[in-house]
Design brief:
The complex is a heterodimer of chains A (150) and B (366).
Chain A lengths: L37 H10 L2 H8 L10 H17 L5 H6 L3 H16 L5 H26 L5
Helix pairs in contact in A: 1-2, 2-3, 3-5, 5-6
Chain B lengths: L1 E4 L7 E4 L5 E5 L4 E8 L2 E9 L5 E6 L5 E6 L4 E7 L2 E7 L7 E6 L5 E6 L4 E7 L4 E7 L7 E6 L5 E6 L4 E5 L23 E4 L7 E6 L5 E6 L3 E6 L2 E6 L5 E6 L4 E6 L5 E6 L4 E7 L13 H11 L17 E8 L7 E6 L3 E6 H7 L7
Antiparallel strand pairs in B: 1-28, 2-3, 3-4, 4-5, 6-7, 7-8, 8-9, 10-11, 11-12, 12-13, 14-15, 15-16, 16-17, 18-19, 19-20, 20-21, 22-23, 23-24, 24-25, 26-27, 27-28
């Protein structure tokens, strides 16, 4: 009896793939989504125009694209902008965003939490606190329920 | 406002009889309990035992006085009052997953059951065989149907599903009714036709409701949004609160919704701008006396909860847990005067619209 219970390869089979009723998200052509413009954002940071940099980096979010590089690049850029803000200016930065902007910012913040680096978590937590008071828990719920995210 | 705590367990679903003296509810088990209001007490007068699984939906037809129940045992029963007892009739739904919600049509000659089998069973009574028969609406539903609401024309049915869409189907059964007149949603309505499919919201659709005229449909999604669609335009409002579970129109322009935040909320729809806006929180919190804190309490708070706030961690709302269902008591969806909410705290609250309007300044129910 012990012979046929030795192999456990069956545990690695993804049975959902064989389900004929498996839910597949609708394909939305997102191949032309390139993410925020790196050059524009960099120049705004260098000029010290952090508000402008924030607005610029939240443009063209790579939501529908399947290209992981584009997504990673966008996340890195956002992190750069968020880290260059002074702690006291974070609140003003969040106030300058509209509802959709706050939702998008929260998506980037949580994406940043997934890959913590040197100092990123501390900065992100400060931004999280301010974004939460602007967007409420509803904003976080939308990050959790979004099928396509940055 | 009045609040009555029926049970310690959640109330899975409830339905009122025509004159609102009796309420049928499921106390989170396989039974349906019917309570009657006698004076200021609620007395249990009937217990309906037939289901083998949790009862997930109850609807009480006001004119014909029949109750339809559906449950996780994949069955639905139509109950008729014979003398002093409710007698069940089994309805074969032909589903292989749990039934989730059930609603009588406005004329009470058919009812629809939403299920986890990714389909809606529309059931009608076949005189010849003396038996309830059902037809299925399958395409293009791709996940569980969570909520249903009928259009006043007795043919169109709005369904909210776990595949993130709210759809309006035609549930036209030629055996029991005439061809329907054209509506704002379309003129050709063969059975199973999709008259409308929502866009603009993500998240499971927990609650759906037609307005009194049937020209508008509102739905509440799990991504903390509420949306209203009318004439090809959809107005979406993202909310800062936890997701809403149930929604109903109380006038043609105002909606009341409630959910995981445990208090009902008012929304106002402006059809000229096709915009939905937040109208106000409909719960009057008790004014708790401000106690002074001793230094010891402050230090304990800091130690245990890392905060120096003197706010107690107690919900100030009437319901102490999520509100799962909302029903209109009188006035209909056009001029609702009272509505009722039940929730996971086992309690039922009755809200008076006039009282709410006068209690909250800035609250305008248009």
């Amino acid at each position: 009896m012990s012979k046929n219970t030795v192999s456990d390869r069956f545990r690695k089979v993804d049975v959902d793939e064989y389900d004929e009723n498996k839910f597949v998200d609708e394909e939305e052509g997102g191949e032309n989504q390139l993410g925020p413009d790196e050059a524009e954002v960099d120049s705004l940071i260098r000029q010290g125009n952090l508000m402008g940099a924030l607005q610029a980096v939240l443009k063209n979010p790579p939501i529908s694209t399947k290209n992981q590089n584009v997504k990673d690049r966008a996340e890195g850029l956002v992190l750069k902008v968020l880290s260059s803000f002074k702690s006291t200016d974070i609140e003003k930065g969040v106030q300058s965003l509209d509802k959709n902007g706050v939702d998008l910012l929260m998506k980037y913040i949580y994406k940043g939490f997934e890959q913590p680096s040197e100092n990123s978590s501390a900065v992100l937590l400060q931004w999280h606190e301010k974004a939460l008071s602007a967007g409420g828990v509803g904003c976080i719920v939308r990050v959790l329920t979004a099928r396509k995210t940055v | 406002m009045s609040y009555h705590s029926f049970l310690l367990e959640p109330i899975s679903c409830h339905a009122w009889n025509k004159d609102r003296t009796q309420i049928a509810m499921c106390p989170n088990n396989h039974e349906v309990h019917i309570y009657k209001k006698e004076g200021s007490n609620w007395n249990k007068i009937h217990v309906l035992k037939e289901h083998n699984g949790q009862v997930t939906g109850i609807d009480w037809a006001p004119e014909s006085n029949r109750i339809v129940t559906c449950g996780t045992d994949r069955n639905a029963y139509v109950w008729t009052l014979k003398g002093d007892a409710w007698k069940p009739t089994l309805v074969i739904l032909r589903i292989n997953r749990a039934a989730r919600c059930v609603k009588w049509s406005p004329k009470e000659n058919k009812f629809a059951v939403g299920s986890g089998s990714r389909l809606i069973s529309v059931c009608y009574f076949e005189q010849d065989n003396d038996w309830w028969v059902c037809k299925h609406i399958k395409k293009p539903i791709r996940s569980t149907i969570l909520c249903l609401d009928w259009h006043p024309n007795n043919v169109l049915l709005a369904a909210g599903s776990c595949d993130f869409k709210c759809r309006i189907f035609s549930a036209y059964i030629k055996e029991v009714e005439e061809k329907p007149a054209p509506t704002a949603w379309g003129s050709k309505m063969p059975f199973g036709e999709v008259m409308f499919e929502s866009t603009g919201t993500a998240g499971w659709v927990h609650g759906v409701c037609f307005s009194d005229s049937g020209n508008r449909v509102a739905w509440a999604s799990h991504d903390s949004t509420v949306a209203v669609a009318e004439g090809g335009k959809t107005a979406v409002l993202t909310s800062e609160t936890l997701p809403l579970l149930c929604v109903t129109f109380i006038t043609e322009n105002s909606l009341v919704a409630a959910g995981h935040d445990c208090y009902p909320v008012l929304f106002v729809y402006d059809s000229n701008k096709a915009a939905l806006s937040f109208g106000g929180k409909l719960d009057v919190p008790k004014q708790s006396a401000q106690k002074g804190m001793t230094a010891r309490e402050r230090f304990q708070n800091l130690d245990k909860k890392a905060t120096t706030d003197s706010k107690e961690a107690v919900l100030e709302s009437l319901h102490k847990n999520s509100i799962s269902q909302i029903s209109i008591l009188n006035g209909g969806k056009a001029r609702c005067a009272k509505f009722c909410t039940t929730g996971m705290d086992g309690g039922m609250a009755i809200w008076d619209v006039k009282t709410l309007e006068s209690a909250m300044k800035d609250l305008k129910i248009v």
